[in-house]
């Protein structure tokens, strides 16, 4: 779905254990991080805000979408079990048609209980989850656990972030949250994190249904860097940027400013292009 169509639809809707040396990558490649675990978490950057987490026989898609018009990477899955989680219902974070291409009859979409009423669940098996309720994504083995934690949506819609643990690693994915006051509590309860995936484009919107107030609906690069420090993240990976369009405006040079603030704040950045992997060996 085009950006304009997404906005129109949703605006009106009721580590040296881990220290990667990552500079800007021009071609997809694997970024290998050291680990002593026999079962390693493997992470692929998908389109926009999406990631794919693989561990043993389980694949977990997070905010996975596919839009042919914007040359998004298609979703693929090679494991026996495949499931998904979403931070919120907006169509640039929840794409049921894309999930159906990799789901089978046993697949589940894990969704926060306040988000679930907002989404199209036809032909998709869903499981409602409460805030701070851990879900065993790997089904019975406890190898891959996902837990929703607080976030704040730019439109006042229900939204969460997700803490994901497995293979001795812990990451957090924050969708397109605004800045909020829960960072320290999340860090104290679940941190430190090996990687924090944080939005950076400080999007502003101007369409017939939405008047641009000058206040971004998503965190900006500096806020993402500070949030990663409060989360006690060893590395921060920026997401949700690089697609300005009519009626949808990003902060100038979001990646460049993110890298500048990361350097000034002594934060380790991880820049992943669409399709690139991070894995521990």
* Domain count: 1
**Class inferred from helices and paired strands:** alpha/beta
Largest sheet: 8 strands, mixed
CATH superfamily: Ribonuclease Z/Hydroxyacylglutathione hydrolase-like
Outline? globular
Helices and strands, in order, run as HEEEEEHEEEEEEHEEHEEHE
Low-pLDDT runs: 11-28
Kindly describe this structure.
- The chain has five helices and 16 strands.
- With 281 residues, it is of the alpha/beta class.
- It has a single domain (3-7, 25-280), classed as Ribonuclease Z/Hydroxyacylglutathione hydrolase-like (Metallo-beta-lactamase, Chain A, 4-Layer Sandwich).
- An eight-stranded mixed beta sheet has the order 1-16-2-3-4-5-6-7, with no helix packed on it.
- A hairpin with a 7-residue loop joins strand 8 and strand 9.
- Residues 11-28 have low confidence and may be disordered.
């Amino acid at each position: 779905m085009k950006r304009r169509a997404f906005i129109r639809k949703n605006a009106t809707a009721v580590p040296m254990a881990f220290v990667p040396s990552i500079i800007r990558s021009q071609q997809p490649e694997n970024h290998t991080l050291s680990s002593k675990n026999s079962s390693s978490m493997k992470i692929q950057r998908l389109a926009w805000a999406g990631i794919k987490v693989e561990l043993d026989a389980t694949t977990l898609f997070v905010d996975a979408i596919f839009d042919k018009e914007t040359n998004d990477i298609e979703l693929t899955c090679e494991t026996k079990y495949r499931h998904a989680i979403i931070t919120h219902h907006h169509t640039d974070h929840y794409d049921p048609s894309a999930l159906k291409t990799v789901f089978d009859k046993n697949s589940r979409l894990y969704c926060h209980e306040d988000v679930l009423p907002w989404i199209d669940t036809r032909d998709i098996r869903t499981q409602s989850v409460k805030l701070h309720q851990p879900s065993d994504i790997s089904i019975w083995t406890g190898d891959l656990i996902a837990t929703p934690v607080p976030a704040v949506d730019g439109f006042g819609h229900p939204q969460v972030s997700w803490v994901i643990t497995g293979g001795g690693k812990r990451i957090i994915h924050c969708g397109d949250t605004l800045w909020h006051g829960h960072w320290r509590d999340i860090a104290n309860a679940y941190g430190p994190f090996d990687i924090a995936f944080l939005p950076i484009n400080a999007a502003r919107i101007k369409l017939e249904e939405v008047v641009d107030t000058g206040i971004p609906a998503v965190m900006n690069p500096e806020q993402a860097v500070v949030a990663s420090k409060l989360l006690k993240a060893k590395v921060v990976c920026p997401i949700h940027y690089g697609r300005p369009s009519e009626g949808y405006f990003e902060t100038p040079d979001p990646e460049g400013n993110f890298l500048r603030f990361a350097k000034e704040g002594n934060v380790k950045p991880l820049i992943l292009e669409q399709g690139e992997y991070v894995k521990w060996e």
